[in-house]
Write a structure and sequence with these properties.
- It is a single chain.
- The protein has seven helices and 17 strands.
- A hairpin with a 2-residue loop joins strand 10 and strand 11.
- A five-stranded antiparallel β-sheet has the order 5-6-12-10-11. A three-stranded parallel β-sheet has the order 1-4-2, covered by helices on one side. Strands 14-15-16 form a three-stranded antiparallel β-sheet.
- The chain is an alpha+beta fold and 274 residues long.
- The protein has helices spanning 26-33, 81-90, 106-112, 141-144, 171-188, 207-213, 242-258; strands at 17-23, 38-41, 47-49, 54-61, 66-69, 72-76, 93-94, 115-116, 119-120, 125-132, 135-140, 158-165, 167-168, 220-221, 224-226, 234-236, 268-270.
- The mean pLDDT is 97.
- It has three domains: 5-61, Uridine Diphospho-n-acetylenolpyruvylglucosamine Reductase, domain 2; 66-188, Uridine Diphospho-n-acetylenolpyruvylglucosamine Reductase, domain 3 (2-Layer Sandwich); 207-270, UDP-N-acetylenolpyruvoylglucosamine reductase, C-terminal domain (Uridine Diphospho-n-acetylenolpyruvylglucosamine Reductase, domain 1), CATH 3.90.78.10.
- The protein is globular, with a radius of gyration of 19 Å.
- The longest helix has 18 residues, at 171-188.
- It binds flavin-adenine dinucleotide (FAD).
- Flavin-adenine dinucleotide binds at residues 10, 39-47, 61, 77, 102-105, 107-109, 111-112, 114-116, 157-159, 189, 194-196, 268.
């Protein structure tokens, strides 16, 4: 086993990987994916990695080329969303402003259909080139069946690149909107290591509100604490283990289910959890 995966996640939690590979272009990414047991990480911003780590290769996807042609922006799946939306803005294109401040990659965002402030990846995604069973398959927006934090991607699929169809707009107006959204994030989002929202919002309800109403703001186990600012976010206050986070998650699920609502995780588990 080698380096701790924790260093490559925003939670800062997780044991070692058997191997860590960094891929800087599409060929290297496809090559690594074909070598056996592996998991691809972009920003590592939506995952909880087991304290026992991962018995395979963790691929750190850094394939981040971005190109603009007319109103279409094409990006390597390792491109950061923050870079992508700024690049679109400077090309005078609108449609990705919602992504400002989401600390993920294009690949992770397609898999999760990342979204915020009423916008989501699915609104402008044209297609994604996906490595499936050793071949590249071009999946259209419709084929990806993007819905709330869901896609039709199989666990073994890897997004290699994605193209977005945007609309012409004034760069200054797009930048102003991104500044506005970034300010809202700074106000609402807790400071510290986290994986963003832990649970999906149940239909028509806010997970954060349900958790708050169940009295969990500030609740902690070891170094894992429910944020005082946003109850759907668990913060690693220092030295939190995946076991601590799971204990908090289970306590929340139990309390909220006693009130008649089943919460489902948005975060993705990596490794073995017993
Ligand atoms: C502070 C903070 C704020 C956040 N705010 C938001 C928000 O407003 N809206 C929102 O939707 N999310 C939010 N998130 C969660 C997260 O940033 C998004 O889900 C993001 O899209 C995940 O991208 P990633 O590259 O970090 O994925 P990772 O965490 O690296 O991976 C997540 C999953 O996607 C898979 N994956 C990664 N890359 C690929 C690829 N190339 N091909 C196929 N599968 C892949 C991984 O294997 C894993 O299963 C937030 C997180 C944090 C920490």
């Amino acid at each position: 086993m080698c380096k701790n995966i924790a260093d490559f996640t925003t939670f800062g939690i997780g044991g070692a990987a058997r191997r860590i590979a960094v891929t800087e272009n599409a060929d290297a990414l496809m090559d690594e994916c074909g070598r056996g047991e592996c998991v691809v990480l972009g920003g590592g911003s939506n995952v909880l990695v087991s304290d026992d780590g991962y018995d395979g290769t963790v691929i750190l996807n850094r394939y981040a080329d971005i190109s603009v042609s007319g109103e279409t922006v094409t990006a390597g799946s390792g491109a950061r969303l923050s870079v992508l939306c700024k690049r679109a803005a400077s090309a005078g294109l609108t449609g990705l402003e919602f992504a400002v401040g989401i600390p993920g990659s294009v690949g992770g965002a397609v898999r999760m259909n990342a979204g915020a402030f009423g916008g989501s990846i699915g609104d402008s995604l044209l297609y994604a080139d996906v490595l499936r069973g050793g071949k590249i398959v071009r999946m259209t927006n419709a084929e990806l069946a993007l819905s709330y934090r869901e896609s039709a991607l199989l666990p073994s699929d890897t997004v290699i690149s994605a193209a977005f169809m945007l609309k012409r707009a004034d760069t200054e107006a797009v930048n102003a909107r991104m500044c506005e959204l970034a300010a809202i994030r700074r106000r609402l989002q807790p400071i510290g290591k986290s994986a963003g929202s832990v649970f999906k919002n149940p239909c028509g309800m806010s997970a954060g509100k349900l958790i708050d109403e169940a009295g969990f703001k500030g609740y902690s186990v070891g170094g894992a604490k429910v944020s005082d600012r946003h109850a759907n976010i668990i913060v690693n206050t220092g030295g939190a283990t995946a076991k601590d986070v799971i204990a908090v998650i289970n306590a929340i699920k139990q309390a909220v289910s006693a009130r008649g609502v089943i919460l489902k995780e948005e975060i993705i588990y990596i490794g073995e959890f017993t």
